[in-house]
Design a protein that fits this description.
Length: 378
């Protein structure tokens, strides 16, 4: 007998006994106090990294590289061999041991010539694995086309694979690899600190409250009113006379300064994996929720129809299907105003609610106007 069961779990729970033991200490605004350093939330404006990209070849693969239909891999190898004085037509090559890749990296604003940076190589053909491969010298260019670095080295995949066809095993992703410190910087960025009268700090997560607190923290550290929030993302600092021409010393003093950040109440939902991440400042207004359950069970059995003796009939298998629909009663649960959503979610998890049940409840609460938070679906 084959059975197919399709069900939605019933979620009906009294939360009065769950909320008290699960509540976490928060401020009056509902946001937990977590001091962080200035260097973790802001950076100096004008000093930003530059993305680099290049096209290269990975060699030394064990017949797991690009196949013949990947034309650009063969052409790239022919071009490389031609530089060494060997003229081999691309159409005559068998390229199972090489793979075409795009190499990406990020150039720090203060990286100078001779520094080394990490690079990532990603297959762009039909290679099955880059395991054991070595990246040939690859120029890495910035948005303006300038070659800023040269990458080369053995790939590290963080996984492995073996076998072929149905008798194979694979751990992690095998078509992307990294070369730690694999690129040598040729031309660094020219970021001049100089003798500037004003210094601008940019917040990585723009927020009016955090910008004001950052300005207050800088003022308290320097002992004079030199900082102000220009907008949610920018804080302007008038450089004191003692630090004119010594911006590095000023930043070294300010980076370890602690402040309490603020953020928008937010819930992040990934429906593909059933992941729910709830921010600490999420609060609920008074509401009532009922999440029922509909269960459909389909049971299929197979009976045999046997013909009478000497009737020259055929034995026939006759399926018998039994469909049962059952809906459980769902009680209405009351949510008190001011309850933290973190306590509600943990209470539902303790009672065996699935992440998809919780996602449905959160979206319904948001639609009803009882959930004071932004829902982000990724």
């Amino acid at each position: 007998m084959n059975r197919q069961v399709i069900s939605r779990h019933a979620i009906a729970v009294t939360l009065a006994a769950l909320i008290a033991p699960l509540a976490i200490p928060v401020s009056a605004a509902g946001q937990a106090h977590v001091p962080v350093r200035i260097k973790d939330v802001a950076s100096m404006q004008g000093a930003h990294p530059v993305p680099l990209v290049g096209y290269g070849l990975v060699i030394g693969l064990n017949k797991t590289g690009d196949r013949k239909q990947t034309i650009f891999s063969a052409q790239s190898l022919a071009n490389v061999l031609q530089r060494f004085g060997m003229d081999v037509p691309a159409s005559e090559m068998k390229i199972e041991n090489i793979a075409a890749v795009l190499v990406t990296a990020e150039l720090s604003p203060f990286a100078r010539s001779g520094a080394r940076i990490d690079v990532t190589a990603s297959s762009i053909g039909d290679a099955r694995s880059l395991q054991g491969g070595t990246l040939l010298v690859t120029p890495l260019r910035g948005p303006d086309g300038t070659v800023h670095a040269l990458a080369q080295g053995a790939l590290s995949l963080g996984g492995f694979g073996g076998g072929d066809g149905g008798n194979s095993v694979q751990v992690n992703h095998l078509t992307v690899g990294r070369v730690p410190a694999g690129a040598l910087v040729q031309i660094g960025q020219q970021v001049a600190l100089g003798d500037t009268p004003h210094l601008l700090l940019s917040l990585r997560e723009p927020d009016f409250t955090t910008a004001r607190r950052l300005a207050e923290a800088v003022t308290a550290e320097l002992g004079e009113d030199v900082a102000r929030a220009v907008d949610p993302a920018t804080v302007s600092i008038a450089v004191p006379e003692a630090y004119r021409g010594a911006i590095s010393d000023l930043m070294a003093r300010l980076e370890p300064v602690m402040l309490v950040t603020d953020a928008t109440a937010r819930i992040v939902i990934n429906e593909r994996t059933g992941t729910v991440v709830v921010g600490g400042g999420v609060r609920l207004s008074a509401a009532a929720v009922a999440h029922g359950s509909l269960s459909v069970r389909i049971a299929t059995s197979y009976d045999v129809s046997q013909p009478a003796p000497f009737s020259q009939g055929e034995t026939v298998v006759v399926p018998q299907t039994d469909v049962e629909v059952r809906e459980q009663d769902g009680r209405l649960m009351a949510l008190e105003s001011g309850v933290t959503l973190d306590a509600v979610v943990r209470g539902l998890n303790a009672l065996g609610a699935t992440p998809r049940d919780i996602i449905a409840i959160l979206q319904a609460l948001k639609a009803a106007g009882a959930l004071q938070a932004e829902i982000v679906i990724i």
